[in-house]
Design brief:
about 220 residues, alpha/beta, Alpha-Beta Plaits, six-stranded parallel beta sheet, 7 helices, about 35% helix, disordered C terminus
Length: about 220
């Protein structure tokens, strides 16, 4: 999948290398060309000098076809502006912004922008935010027969009762992460854009869940 990383600092450079190792096509953007010296020779991605909130730069980076974007510069305002442009102007499906002031997190969540504050920052957490479908599972029982997985809610279920997801897959929704809080699942809970669902599944239910999400992602890509 095509992914854009904005900011080639310690986190951005490490994130870009990690994403390439996961098989993603990565474009790395930074305003300072000297920042790219952090990147190992032949790391496998594309480097562009420019601003992450410049639409021309984002277009050059392939934002029109990008699946995900991480804004990880040293400035909160720059990261949020970049994330908003990526979401609103380029319809990038998965966007996350790094912030230094965790008090702003709730404000940004209302804009539909997932954030991670510096105190909780790790490269693997960013990858988990950008590509939750690639995480095998968050928990597994001792016998390996039951797993707890985290998945983004398909657009076609937004505005509908989440229990429909259970009926289609046979899984059991445990909780829903929405903005900066988590909700215990109830049968009358209505799905919203940006929801992250936590589902208990066996192997059969997990397969049906992944197939359903893959079909939904395909429809979204075709509609762009």
């Amino acid at each position: 999948m095509r992914t854009i990383v904005v900011g080639c600092g310690r986190v951005g450079s490490g994130l870009a290398v990690a994403l390439v190792s996961h098989g993603h096509q990565v474009t790395l953007i930074d305003r300072n060309p000297n920042s790219f010296r952090r990147m190992p020779a032949g790391w496998g991605g594309i480097e562009i000098v420019g601003s992450g909130f410049d639409k021309i730069t984002l277009t050059e980076a392939g934002a029109n076809q990008a699946h995900a974007l991480a804004a990880v510069t040293s400035g909160d305002n720059s990261n949020i502006l970049t994330a908003r442009i990526a979401r609103e102007d380029f319809a990038i499906q998965h966007v996350v912004a790094r912030i230094y002031d965790p008090r702003r997190a709730e404000i940004y969540s209302r804009l539909g922008i997932p954030t991670i504050a510096t105190v909780t920052w790790t490269i693997q957490r960013v990858i988990g935010k950008l590509f939750p479908e690639e995480k095998p599972y968050a928990w597994e029982d001792p016998f390996g027969s039951l797993k707890l997985v985290e998945r983004n809610l398909p657009n076609r279920l937004c505005g509908k009762k989440l229990e429909l997801l259970e009926k289609e897959t046979g899984g059991r929704i445990v909780a829903v992460s929405r903005g900066q809080k988590s909700l215990i699942f109830s049968s009358d809970l209505i799905g919203q854009e940006g929801d992250l669902i936590h589902v208990a599944v066996d192997e059969n239910a997990k397969k049906l869940l992944d197939e359903m999400l893959a079909e939904d992602n395909g429809r979204k890509q075709e509609s762009r």
